[in-house]
Structure formats: C-alpha cells, structure tokens
Amino acid sequence: xxxxxxPKFGLTMMEGQITEWQRKPGERFSKGEVLFVVETEKVANxxxxxxxxxxxxxxxxxxxxxxxxxxxxxxxxxxxxNEPALAVPTTPPRATAAFDAPAARKLMREHGLSPFEIxxxxxxxxxxxSDVLRIVATPLARRVAQQNDVDLHxxxxxxPNGRIKVVDVERVLAYPPYKTSQETASIRSTLDPVxxxxxxxxxxxxxxxxxxxxxxxxxxxxxxxxxxxxxxxRDKLNAEADKRARISVTHILVKxxxxxxxxxxxxxxxxxxxxxLSFVSADIGMVTETPQGLRIPMFRxxxxxxxxxxxxxxxxLAARAREGQLAPTDVGGGVMSISNxxxxxxxxxxxxxxxxxxxxxGVGAEQQAFRPDDTGQPSLCREICLTLAVDHRIIDxxxxxxxxxxxxxxxEEPLRLLRAPINTNA
Length: 426
Prior knowledge:
Number of helices: 10
Mean pLDDT: 83
Number of strands: 19
Order of helices and strands: EEEEEEEEHHHHHHEHHEEEEEEHEEEEH
Shape: elongated
Distance between the termini: 54 Å
Structural class: alpha+beta
Radius of gyration: 27 Å
Strand content: 15-25%
Largest sheet: 7 strands, mixed
C-alpha cells in the first residue's frame, strides 16, 4: 500500500483542488490512465497513474483543497510490497486509552484514529479533544481558523467522516455561532450585503497576489511611448492580412518584450529561494480575462517568433483560455508578462508581478496629445503609457530603465520588430 500525494505543478503552487476522481475505491487502473484532476489558479491538470494498480481508499474528496505533498488516497501498485508507505512509528508504552479525555476517545473511535498517531497536549501526554480535532481538520481549515481565532471545538465538519473543511470555518465567520439561523434570518433584509464564498480560483489568485505584494519588493518605471509609426505599420499589415490573424497592440508588445529579453539576456532571470534561475528562451505571458478568472498563457521564445506567428498563437491561446482548454504546457515559466487594459479606456495600469516571475508590463489605452515637432510646432501624436513593475531582488533600477528604453525605442521605430534579434551580453 502506498500514499498518493498532492502533486506540485509550478514553483509557486502551495495547494490544489481535486475537481474529479476518475476511479472509485476498489477499481483498478493502468499505467498512464488519468486518476484524478487537480485545479490550480493557472489551469486544470490531469494526473496519470505511474504504474498498474488499484485505488484502495480516498483520503480527500472532490472539491477539497489539499496542500502540496499531503496524502489524498491510498493505492496498491502491482509488484510492489503492500507494506504501508508511512508505517506507524514505534513508541514507548503509554497510558491506557482510559487516561485520555472522554471527548477525545469518542472522536478517535469515530474517525478510526489510533492514540499512537496523536501527540497529547494535556498533563503527562493526555490526549485532549483539541488534539484530535487537529488531526481531522484539513490543513487549510486549520490555517484559516487560526488566522481568525475560530475554535475548532465548536465546529461540525462537513467532510468525509466529519472532517472539518475550510467551508465549515468560513460558515462560522459569516454567521457567528452565538446567533441561531432564525435570529440571523430575522435581522437580515434585502438591503443587507450578501456574503458569497469565493471559488477556488479566486481564493488561489487572492493568496498569490497578496503574497506577491508582501514578499516581492516591487519598484515601478513609467514611460510614455509615441506609437504613431507603430499604428501606421499595424494598419498596413492588417489591411493585407487576407487569411492571416489580425495583429493587435498586445501582439506587438509581446514581440517587443521578447526581442528585448533575447537581446538583453541578463534580464531573463528570476529570484528563487534556491538561487537565481536564468532562462535561455524569452517566454512572455499574456494576462487574459476568462469566465474562470485571470489566466496567463505563455508565448514561448517570443523574441524569435514572427509577428504573424505571435498573432496566430495569441488568438488561439486567448480562445482556449476563455474556453478553459489551456494545457499545462501553455502556462508557467518565463520571467515576465503583459497586462493590457487599453481596450477598457484606462490610461495606465500599475500591475502586480505574478510570482515567480520578475517583471510585468502594464499597458494603458492609446491617447492623443499635441507634442512639439522638430521645429517646435505642435504636432498631434498617438501615445500609450507603459508601466513596468520589477522585482528589486533580481533587477536594479538602471537595468530596468535600459530595458524599458529598449522596448520603447523598438515601438517608436517598429520596423525593428520585423527583423531577427541580435544576441548580446547586455
């Protein structure tokens, strides 16, 4: 017998939601068959069996959020010893079960727990009810309860065998236990705010951006870019598009960023707990709004992709993102992304870096402004505002300014975007 653990997809994944089990307890499976589906804030991932075997028991049901590395099922693989993967450790003789608190003994019986699995916090190691509750609550439920001073003693779990889930804690936070349901209903009116439980994607996104603002020392650079020539080139290319995908401003910016990373390889790296991780391919993410929340599909090696290929790839990625059809290979990796809110009329955006990336470019709507020409006379220009958010742990201000200058120069002289990049050691 072996434990099936929650897998880790990507550097920043801390937990995942089991959205579907493809096998039931007692059913056999073959190597390569999909056992279950895990959803992260990025994409749904199908997890395949590593070998032939049998699913023995589910430790986590569909809809549960489980931390990476925790067991979610018990399986038996063919040709492998049936000894438990994590045997109960041998411990010195302890006092009889009668020594433990009555409520603790009752809970242990109900949940099939052995006293040897639990560390007692009472006098002389006596197991208390709270010690057992720590075992039968999910890790996320325990964390949320601790953060909000919720006593798990007072909760009734809605999970398998009464296991306390995070939804049980959130229910208490929404309607405190000192109010009955009748009392709560009587004081509510149609004008009261409505509390809605966020779905897993929103929760995961909230934790990710909160952690990014807390843990990543952001700094920002803003530059106004003249896109008069760029707009003219784009209009000409789209007028001759025929059966080609139409080129958008976002597609052009993806090309400009990919070109900049290719020609400034010192910027193509991220900060990790284990050290500085450098990339060879200039992969650029595109923040995309979908019915399931934000997704960031990636353009692989964008610096070497022709504009037509970027437009075709971008159209395909955006469509599959909105339909929830992105593959795991479509997301993750890269050092930066682009978030364009220009289509909504916003003049600028100060974005939050998507970890573990090191940069993100915020793009505003095109604006018209009069600027002095070479003779000092007012000339009508078309401009966009670019805001580059940068991780100061890995990139200094001067390097970031040179990078943004390089991107801006290529946008103001867009014929450069039609040429192959020149690798340098900038």
